[in-house]
Structures are given as C-alpha cells and as structure tokens.
C-alpha cells in the first residue's frame, strides 16, 4: 500500500494547490449563498414547501442526465479550461437571478413568472454543474503527488465545507440586511473573484489518450469500474440513500419561519449548523487522520446522522435544533472524508473524470433529489413527519448496507 505523508500540511505547501483552494472557496461560498437565497426567495414567493423541492428537482434533472457524458468530456479535455468556462457560466446565472430580483421586475412580472425564471436559471446551472463539480476533484490529482493525495483530499473537502458554512450563514445575514438584490450582487462578486483566482492555474491536458474512443464505450468503462469496485460502490450507495432520505436541510426555511419562528438571522445560523459541524470534524481529521476501521466508522457515522435528523424533526427549541444539525454535520463530515479518500485512492488517473461524474450522480445530485423528496413528503405527510420518515429511512439504509456490503464494513486504507 502507498504510504501517505504524515505531514498534515504537505499539500498546502504547494502554491498551485493553494490557488485551487482559494478559487474553490470563493466559488462555493457564492454558490451556497445562492442556494440559501433561492430557497428563502422561492418559499416567500409561493408559501409552498413543495416549491422548495422543485428547486432541487430543477437542478437534479440536468445534472444527473448529463453526468456520464460530462465524465467522458472531462477525461478527454483540458481541465483548467473546463473549470473557467463553468465558473463564467455560473456568473451569468447569478446575473440572471439578479435581474429577476429587482423592484422593476417585481412591479412588472407576477410572482408566478419570477418563480418560473428562477427554476429555469437553476436548470441551467444544473447542466453546468455536471461538468464543473467533477472537474474540481479530477484536477486535484494533477496538482499534488499521489503520496499527498489523501491529505489533499481532506484539505479540499475542508475548504468546500468551510465555504458552505460561510455561504449558508452569510446568506441569511445578508438577506436580512441587503435583501435579495443586494445578496445577489455579493454572490456575483464572489464568483467573479473566484474566476480571477482560477485563471492562475496551469493548463491540465487530458491524461486519457483514448480520445477517439466512442462516447458510450467510454461511459461504460467508467460505470463498469464503479460497479466492480465494491468499496467505491458501497460508499457511494450509502451516501446516496442517506442524503436522499436525510435531507432535512432542504426544509430549514420552513422550520425557521413557521415552526421555530426565528427569522432570517436565525435561518442563517440553522442553515449553517450542519456545515459548521462538518468543518470542525474535517479540521480534526486533517490533523489526526483515521488510521484504521474507516469502513466501520463510516457506517456508525451515517447511523448517527439519521438519529440527529429525527431529533431535529421533533425539536421545538432553537438550541436543540441547532445542536442536532451541528452533530449531524460532524457525522456527515466523517462520511465525506472517508468517501472522498476512497474515490481518490482507488481511481486510475485516466478514468477520474468518468468516475468522479458517477460520484456526482450518486452524491451531489442526491442532494437536489433529496430536496425534491423532502418537498413531496412534506406535502403528503406534513413537514415534521416527513423529516422523521427521512431519518428512519437513513437508519434502515445503514442496516441494509452493513448486511450486504461486508467489504465496506471491513474497509481500511
């Protein structure tokens, strides 16, 4: 087995890796502020929990359907150019939302059509995300040596989670102070600065020499690798269903406004709680990496996540709700680090685009599908019962995975 570096700052010492983290931090902060704003904005336009779910569906459908083709494209393309194009398109999307948020638009267009415009814009970002998200993970292996890959993965995940905390929390505060239009100005500025930072990356030519391979054959190679690598398939499946059923965060606007009655500032804190927990655990795992029994710890972490979601559902007190999401975030952080490390260490360099795109289908898209599922079950069962149902289903998924995937249960790296 490849010996990993014992220096927790090994990858950070590389200038280009720091540049990548800076650009990704600014970009993800802007995106998380955007998702926070859109959830709050749509709910206030429609007063319908299902409308929040439709935001997730709007992004899930294109991201999921384009993922496999995107993976093939990433493997045969120059990675820096793909990232720059994708971030530039996100900047255009932020500007489109900015136009929809103005007083002029509100005076001339009904709330229904403004909501339609938001859904259409989010649909467009779903297409872009199917290319950009995996490319950020693929380019990692082109920047750091393989002996530092586990360390770089942890830093990369930590940066993503820190940006999520900043974006979610700041989004709530900025909405309260500046309104939708002012918040979108901040979002557009963050994405623009991210674009400037990422321009400093060096070109990253394709490592896959089989650019003449038929697209579908290339896609099948990526799927075959994931399906035949049991540790990868088990970790992805566990996260897929846990996120799908345990997506209580999608309904945080409803809990904040109607159940806990804490307003935009409290909403910002509650929305950031899980990410604060995640970044705390990622910092700990960066300094003190897990040395053994990572698979078993992954299963326990996801089970604990489900219990926290149930606690959040039944809570009527802000501090208990915040604490439940905080601990859920810490447990989810364990899952993120273990899964991310498995993906990086097990994937051959010439297949990273396709495998990371399959990962995107399983994990990233499941966030949006989970948001839709939360909206539908909230309409069918009521908000609180739907979140309890999700937590219980998460526990059931852990039990089934532990029984049917012994290789994941015994996994160590």
Strand-helix topology:
Elements: H1 15-46, H2 49-75, H3 79-101, H4 103-108, H5 111-138, H6 140-143, H7 149-198, H8 215-228, H9 230-245, H10 252-259, H11 263-287, H12 294-314, H13 318-346, H14 352-381, H15 383-404, H16 406-409
Helix pairs in contact: 1-2, 1-5, 1-7, 2-5, 2-8, 2-14, 3-5, 3-7, 5-14, 7-11, 7-13, 9-12, 9-13, 9-14, 9-15, 10-11, 11-13, 12-13, 12-15, 14-15
Primary descriptors:
Growth Hormone, Chain: A, about 425 residues, mainly alpha, 16 helices, globular, about 0% strand
- In the CATH scheme, the class would be Mainly Alpha
Inertia-based shape: globular
In CATH terms, the superfamily is: MFS general substrate transporter like domains
Beta-strand percent range: under 5%
| Individual helix count | 16
Sheet/helix structural class = mainly alpha
Spans of at least 5 consecutive residues whose pLDDT stays below 50 are none
The CATH architecture is Up-down Bundle
Q: Helix and strand succession?
A: HHHHHHHHHHHHHHHH
Which percent range fits the helix content?
over 70%
Number of strands: 0
Q: Quick check: average pLDDT?
A: 83
As for the number of domains, it is 1
CATH topology value: Growth Hormone, Chain: A
* Radius of gyration (Å): 20 Å
Taking the sheet with the most strands, its summary is: none
In angstroms, what separates the terminal alpha carbons? 8 Å
């Amino acid at each position: 087995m490849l010996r990993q570096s014992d220096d927790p700052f090994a990858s950070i010492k590389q200038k280009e890796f720091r540049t990548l983290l800076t650009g990704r931090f600014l970009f993800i902060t802007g995106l998380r502020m955007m998702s926070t704003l859109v959830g709050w904005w749509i709910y206030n336009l429609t007063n319908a929990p299902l409308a929040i779910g439709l935001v997730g569906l709007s992004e899930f459908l294109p991201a999921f359907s384009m993922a496999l083709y995107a993976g093939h494209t990433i493997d045969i393309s120059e990675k820096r150019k793909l990232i720059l194009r994708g971030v530039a398109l996100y900047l255009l999307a932020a500007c489109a939302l900015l136009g929809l948020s103005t007083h002029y638009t509100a005076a001339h267009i009904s709330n229904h059509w403004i909501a339609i415009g938001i859904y259409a814009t989010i649909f467009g970002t779903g297409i872009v995300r199917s290319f950009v998200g995996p490319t950020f993970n693929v380019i990692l292996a082109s920047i750091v040596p393989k002996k530092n890959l586990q360390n770089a993965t942890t830093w990369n995940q930590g940066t993503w989670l820190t940006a999520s905390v900043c974006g979610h929390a700041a989004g709530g505060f900025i909405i309260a102070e500046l309104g939708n239009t002012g918040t979108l100005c901040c979002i557009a500025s963050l994405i623009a600065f991210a674009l400037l930072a990422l321009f400093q990356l060096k070109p990253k030519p394709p490592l896959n020499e089989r650019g003449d391979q038929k697209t579908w054959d290339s896609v099948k190679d990526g799927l075959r690798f994931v399906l035949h690598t049991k540790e990868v398939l088990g970790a992805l499946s566990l996260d897929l269903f846990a996120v799908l059923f345990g997506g209580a965060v999608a309904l945080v606007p409803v809990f904040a406004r109607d159940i806990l009655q804490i307003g935009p500032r409290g909403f910002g804190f509650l929305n950031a709680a899980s990410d604060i927990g995640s970044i705390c655990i990622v910092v700990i795992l960066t300094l003190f990496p897990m040395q053994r029994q990572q698979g078993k710890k992954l299963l326990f972490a996801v089970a604990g996540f489900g219990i926290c979601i149930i606690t959040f559902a039944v809570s009527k007190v802000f501090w208990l709700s915040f604490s439940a999401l905080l601990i859920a975030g810490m447990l989810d952080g364990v899952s993120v680090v273990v899964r991310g490390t498995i993906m990086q260490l097990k994937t051959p360099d010439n297949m990273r685009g396709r495998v990371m795109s399959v990962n995107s289908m399983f994990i990233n898209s499941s966030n949006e599908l989970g948001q839709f599922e939360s909206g539908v079950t909230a309409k069918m069962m009521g908000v609180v019962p739907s979140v309890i149902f999700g937590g219980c289903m998460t526990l059931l998924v852990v039990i089934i995975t532990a029984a049917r995937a012994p290789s994941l249960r015994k996994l160590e790296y």
